[in-house]
Amino acid sequence: MIHPLWHRFPMVYQQLEQIQQRLEHVAVLREPQVHALIQQQINAGGKMLR
């Protein structure tokens, strides 16, 4: 999830959405438990504020 703060900056928000989608697309693993953990980390908030 992308923090609502970025709605104030439409160009940045759009780029962050694209990055989020790309991460979800490439982080596909055969092991369901590991895949679930990776997806959880991708969707966790906070990492894009830096």
UniProtKB/TrEMBL annotation:
Top-level lineage group: Bacteria
Name under which the protein is recorded: Octaprenyl-diphosphate synthase protein
Organism of derivation: Lacticaseibacillus paracasei subsp. paracasei Lpp126
Lineage: Bacteria, Bacillati, Bacillota, Bacilli, Lactobacillales
